[in-house]
Amino acid sequence: MAETDAMQCRACGRTERASEGYPCRGCGTFICVLCNLRGVVFCAECTAKGLVAEQSPA
Q1: What does residue 23 show for φ and ψ, rounded to 5 degrees?
Q2: Is residue 40 a contact partner of residue 52, using CB atoms and an 8 Å limit?
Q3: How far apart are CA 58 and CA 17, in angstroms?
Q4: 8 forms bridges with which residues in the sheet?
Q5: Positive or negative: CA dihedral 13, 10, 32, 50
Q6: Which helix (H) or strand (E) holds 49?
Q7: Segment 30-58, tens digit of pLDDT
Q8: Which of 5, 24, 26, 54 has the most CB within a 10 Å radius?
Q9: What does the DSSP assignment read for 20-45?
Q10: Mind listing the pLDDT tens digit for each residue in 1-17?
């Protein structure tokens, strides 16, 4: 059995290597590198909860 380090991006749903992603700034779930390059830093659930509006720019 081969090991995999794939995780599902919580923003777009794409399955990517876990080592090639970032944590959501709200809850820490996996965000893929492509979403991160597009400026996505919150997962879909945190975005729906409105955490994006509460986050101040760094």
Answers
A1: -80, 150
A2: no
A3: 27
A4: 15
A5: positive
A6: helix 44-49
A7: 999 999 999 999 999 999 988 765 554 55
A8: 24
A9: GEEE-TTT--EEEHHHHHTT--S-HH
A10: 566 789 999 999 999 99
Cα atoms in the 13 Å half-sphere on the side-chain side of 28: 0
56: exposed, middle or buried (C-beta count within 10 Å: 0-12, 13-18, 19+)?
Answer: exposed
Query: And the tokens for 54?
Result: 């509460």
- Record the tokens describing residue 34, joined without a space: 């492509």
Task: Check: pTM over 0.85? Answer yes or no.
Answer: no
Which pair of structure tokens corresponds to residue 41?
A: 């830093």
**Tokens read off for 35:** 């979403």
